[in-house]
Design goal:
By secondary structure, the protein is an all-alpha fold. The protein is built from 13 helices and no strands. The protein has one domain. The chain is elongated and about 70 Å long.
Length: 313
């Protein structure tokens, strides 16, 4: 029974994350019509699973160390995060599932009076640097690559072909980074709760569910991220995906699950600042920031309430 619950909650979380975060990988490429939506979905599915299996274990270890968990508490956290995330995804809001998961774990830890603050502070610091780092990397990459392309003599068709290939490559890197970094958000709380199931096997399960979410539900958020914040040309879209992918991969090496949403939004804002602050759609940015705030707080409150009602009775 416990395994069935874990399987179901992992599916909910993975599908939610895939639906929400595919926009961070290929949203700008699809919105600028350089990459077809179906092509983006298939490539994301494949490389998310590869990234999850090869490098997802570090993040799983980090999340499982924030507070002690058993089957019941991990299912509670996963269920609450999945429901909150899925509702916001259907509304087209690119939430941070990383923050939602950690918000739920903090609610659980506070309810049990057992929080590993050293690990938590490490996670919070990495969160703060994610959008900032992505924005800075985006501005630097834009300037360097713009100078490089300016010295190449090429026609419009050749330039567009080069940008399309760049978007495909950066999207693949982004999908791999998404699997490596964010698979912990779908199965990390279940680490150690199932006998004879390794973190790599959990990562494979989570990666497949993320891929399913990409295939079935990713289009609304993909379009919102791709063209809602600032209108991007193909070259800017390539820089955004490359910068956010590099940022997320760096944190994968550190072993801290960060928000791919924050990374890509930070990169888009960085490009917007480079082009001029007037190009930014501040209402969209405000709505996204609000969803980032609502998700972890809602998960913290609902997990605490669920623990008090159903577990610690």
């Amino acid at each position: 029974m416990g395994f069935i619950l874990i399987f179901g909650v992992s599916a909910l979380l993975g599908i939610t994350l895939g639906a929400n975060d595919a926009g961070n990988v290929f949203g700008t490429a699809v919105a600028t019509r350089f990459v077809r939506y179906r092509t983006a979905c298939v490539l994301t599915f494949i490389f998310v699973v590869i990234g999850a299996v090869l490098q997802g274990s570090k993040g799983i270890e980090t999340l499982s160390g924030i507070t002690p968990q058993n089957v019941n508490t991990s299912v509670l956290v996963g269920f609450v995060v999945g429901i909150v995330g899925f509702i916001l995804s259907l509304l087209g809001q690119p939430i941070s599932l990383s923050q939602a998961v950690v918000g739920g774990l903090i609610g659980l830890g506070l309810s049990q009076n057992k929080v590993e603050w050293e690990i938590l502070w490490k996670v919070l610091i990495c969160w703060a640097f994610t959008p900032l780092g992505a924005g800075i990397i985006a501005i630097i990459c834009y300037k360097i690559l713009f100078v490089f392309l300016s010295h190449l003599r090429m026609g419009i068709l050749t330039r567009e072909t080069l940008i399309r290939r760049g978007l495909l490559l950066s999207g693949v890197i982004g999908a791999y980074s998404l699997g490596a970094n964010n698979v912990a958000n779908t199965v990390g709380m279940f680490s150690g709760t199932i006998k004879d199931v390794s973190n790599m096997e959990l990562a494979l399960l989570g990666g497949v569910f993320i891929g399913i979410g990409v295939l079935l539900f990713s289009k609304p958020v993909m379009m919102n991220v791709g063209k809602g914040i600032v209108i991007l040309d193909g070259f800017s879209a390539f820089v955004v995906v490359l910068s956010s992918s590099v940022t997320v991969y760096i944190f994968s090496l550190v072993g801290v699950p960060v928000s791919t949403t924050q990374a890509v939004v930070g990169a888009i804002v960085g490009i917007g600042i480079h082009h001029g602050v007037h190009t930014l759609q501040f209402k969209v940015i405000k709505d996204i920031l609000l969803s980032w705030l609502v998700a972890p707080i809602a998960c913290l409150v609902f997990v605490s309430a669920g623990y008090a009602i159903f577990i610690n009775k």
